[in-house]
Amino acid sequence: MFRTSLVRSAHSAACRVVRRSTPIARPAVASSFSKFAPAVVFRSYSAAAGLGKEEVTDLTKLSPTSHFANDLGLDSLDTVEVVMAIEEEFSIEIPDKEADNIHSVEKAVAYILAQPDAH
Q1: If we measure between CA atoms, which residue out of 78, 56, 81 comes closest to residue 69?
Q2: DSSP at 55
Q3: Residue 92 pLDDT
Q4: Left, alpha or beta for 40 (phi > 0: left; psi -120 to 50: alpha)?
Q5: Which residue among the candidates 58, 71, 75, 100 is catalytic per the annotation?
Q6: What's one GO-annotated cellular component (predicted)?
Q7: pLDDT confidence tier of residue 101, bands split at 50, 70 and 90
Q8: What is the pLDDT of residue 96?
Q9: Count of CB atoms within 10 A of residue 111's CB?
């Protein structure tokens, strides 16, 4: 009995010593991070701002229903470049099967709007 009470008192004394913590010097930088506002994410562009006026030949041909090949005179390579530009601009990936169905400005806009991850 004396032995168990001695062990208990020694254990509780040791726990009291361990529970007391010595102050630790903390760097001033760590406390200043909590003062800043949360990060704000914004989108920036590094590409040129589209086509210039001298590159567009006839604005009357351009409408939402303009067909890339029939109305605007784009060949298959130009159409692929348009699809690639859409993928890059809106951070989406267009599968080849669906890219083959994008033949007009209207279809391109509809496809982009249907993508939930388009930015």
Answers
A1: 78
A2: G
A3: 92
A4: beta
A5: 75
A6: mitochondrial [2Fe-2S] assembly complex
A7: very high
A8: 92
A9: 19
Is the pLDDT higher at 112 or at 58?
112
Residue 108 CA to residue 93 CA, distance in Å, equals 13
SS3 12: helix
C-alpha separations of 69 from 75, 97, 105 in Å: 6, 18, 11
How far is the first Cα of the chain from the last one, in angstroms, to the nearest whole number?
Answer: 75
Active site residue 58: no
Q: Is 67 helix (H, G, I), strand (E, B) or coil?
A: strand
pLDDT band, very low/low/confident/very high, at 20 (cuts 50, 70, 90)? low
User: What is the CA angle 97-98-100, rounded to 5?
Assistant: 70
CB 87 within 8 A of CB 108: no
Residue 93 confidence (pLDDT) above 60: yes
